[in-house]
Task: inverse folding
């Protein structure tokens, strides 16, 4: 029997998905599981997007342009203009989710052995994408005690080698909810310019900023216009994760011409998803106001609940819909599995993502979990109550 | 300005897509272009698939299972059972088209530097996928004069090195339309078993076999059950290229567990596409009979027309909907571009794919083109007439 690849062996299991079989078993045993492990919002997809798909008139569902339907990309530029980002439609390639867009970016900019610096904890699947593309992740640590702020410039300088080709940030951040300030982005701009690096900026949570904070896009950093690659997605914005529509955006012509070759090899992004996403661009601003109010209320419950639990702590994030919390536990992988396998409170339990998977440095995140506040307020309260009860009796409590 | 990756520089342009700007220009100038360059059928997508999407009831378009919706995969196993292929639903991973499925297979089985043997001419994008995965293609030549039959076993033996990890075939073949016989598959079985290789078998044109020929799947080769990976897609079968639904199928548990990690990293395949594809599985057998009759008539026109042109030749393919034809031309890239840029016959012209892009050996395919017979009989006749007229006056005629 031939053996699988070394690359495949190194590929990590998804911290968001690996406990799914245990959750399924719990459900089979009659336990209600609150899913706070995954960024799958319960918000309804806008009706306007659903209707566009239902009213789709073509009789052949054909390949679209490899970079995405031209009129869709054209309309998209107006969305970005409204958000202060000035681009043209040929600076956009539509991917099957931000996932594919990130792979396009990594493959177009980095070669096997090249290094990308990522402040950790970071979106776990960046690890998988890096292995997929054969590139190396060099993490620099952002710490829960400083609210997961951008590490000081000295940390970046220490991490840079002759193979460093890019810095990757996620802003607002998944998993920490951290929102980068203008000053922090200026620091990044300086490093990127000095070392002539690519800056890959994943801004899929752009709309999710709280307390009146403003989002600053890396696309508007002056003097590094050719260095920046924006990663975006409509999955979270319109609660439409399943349509698989994301974007790779850059003003660097060489990068876009190269990414287009990768896009052409796989022919086209999903047609129905593009139809839905194009229509969703017409949702009124009030849609986001309502959604934000809802997430704001959810954040309050999670942050207050966690910080009221003995030995637990989480900073109040300014964006996205995640928190990373430190808990009085020995091992977050063991704890999250135990929640599904051995615990229930009045026939209910909660599914969390162990934070270990969001770090690339071994040993980090062992007493941290990521919590997605993607459920309604009532369910979140019950889920937090479950967690509180669980911490009281978890055998590995420290 | 940072430079793009070496990988990106090596990435080939798609021979199917690279002439699109010239076709667009021709259209702007009022020329009607017959698109025989791409495998985009004009057959209507089954109404049952369209209706399933229109009747989709969920209010949140959520991520599906990373391997695809479980009930969809379950139903799919019955399709395969009906086609004599015995698999279970956990032996299937749904990809965003066969394209993604091939990347999953390559990444799961081969490491950078490992080699895959592919009889050429082959589906051009295999080159791109190989570069994407960092692996090396070792072509062995199948020749137009022998109707593109499988090269003799000695050719495989010559191509095998210590880095050879897999053989990749496409059956029925794109671009040649060649349908492998049972005897040829037995030859492959012997090589695969002897050298313990993976056999990646792309069978997306399974239904398109002519003259009463039967398709033999690599999944039914005895003694190499753990070696075979089936690549499949609903794009051509149901004329639904834009839904982006393909499959990676294997009985090798290690391979599937590894591929699932790559699938989990990108979260899920497109939801609407899965809904459409699941419904399409219910189309009656008569759908295929009608479609086959249509393609049979189209093949006849193309094959007879080409062979009636002076200095032109193509074998009669037994499957898929492509032919590779040799033409009396100096350079197929130049010729195909000239057709769009400098030629028209009564304000019409034809777009073909230069065969050079379907070979990995430099210099091969220079007097060959791939023709997709995906248009209706009347249009095909006109397109063939255009080609005939073009060959009479092409300045590079030899």
Result:
């Amino acid at each position: 029997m031939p053996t699988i690849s070394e690359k495949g062996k190194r590929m990590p299991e998804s911290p968001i998905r690996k406990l799914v079989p245990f959750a399924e078993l719990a459900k089979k045993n009659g336990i209600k599981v609150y899913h706070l492990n995954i960024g799958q919002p319960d918000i309804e997809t806008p009706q306007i997007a659903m209707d566009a798909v239902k009213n789709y008139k073509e009789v052949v569902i054909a390949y679209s342009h490899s970079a995405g339907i031209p009129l869709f990309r054209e309309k998209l530029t107006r969305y970005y203009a409204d958000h202060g980002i000035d681009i043209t439609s040929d600076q956009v390639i539509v991917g099957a989710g931000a996932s594919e867009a990130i792979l396009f970016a990594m493959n177009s900019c980095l070669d096997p052995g090249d290094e990308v610096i990522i402040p950790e904890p970071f979106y776990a699947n960046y690890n998988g994408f890096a292995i997929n593309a054969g590139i190396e992740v060099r993490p620099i640590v952002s710490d829960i005690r400083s609210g997961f702020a951008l590490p000081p410039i000295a940390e970046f300088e220490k991490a840079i080698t002759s193979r460093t080709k890019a810095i990757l940030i996620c802003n607002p951040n998944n998993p920490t909810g951290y929102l980068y300030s203008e000053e922090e982005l200026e620091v990044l701009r300086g490093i990127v310019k000095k070392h002539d690096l690519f800056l890959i900026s994943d801004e899929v949570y752009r709309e999710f900023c709280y307390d009146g904070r403003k989002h600053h896009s890396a696309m508007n950093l002056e003097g590094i216009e050719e260095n920046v690659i924006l990663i975006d997605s409509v999955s979270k914005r319109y609660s439409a994760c399943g349509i698989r529509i994301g974007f790779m955006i850059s003003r660097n012509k060489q990068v876009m011409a190269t990414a287009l070759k990768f896009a052409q090899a796989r022919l086209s992004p999903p047609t129905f998803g593009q139809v839905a996403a194009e229509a969703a661009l017409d949702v009124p601003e009030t849609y986001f106001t309502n959604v934000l109010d809802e997430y704001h209320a959810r954040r309050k419950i999670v942050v207050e609940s966690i910080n009221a639990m003995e030995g637990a702590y989480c900073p109040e994030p300014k964006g996205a819909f995640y928190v990373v919390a430190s808990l009085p536990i020995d091992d977050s992988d063991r704890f999250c599995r135990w929640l599904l396998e051995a615990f229930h409170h009045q026939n209910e339990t909660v599914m969390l993502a162990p934070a270990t998977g969001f770090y690339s440095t071994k040993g980090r995140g062992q007493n941290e979990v990521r919590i997605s506040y993607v459920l309604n307020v009532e369910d979140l309260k019950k889920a937090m109550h479950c967690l509180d009860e669980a911490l009281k009796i978890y055998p590995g409590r420290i």
Observations:
- The longest strand of chain B covers residues 164-170.
- Chain B has 13 helices and twelve strands.
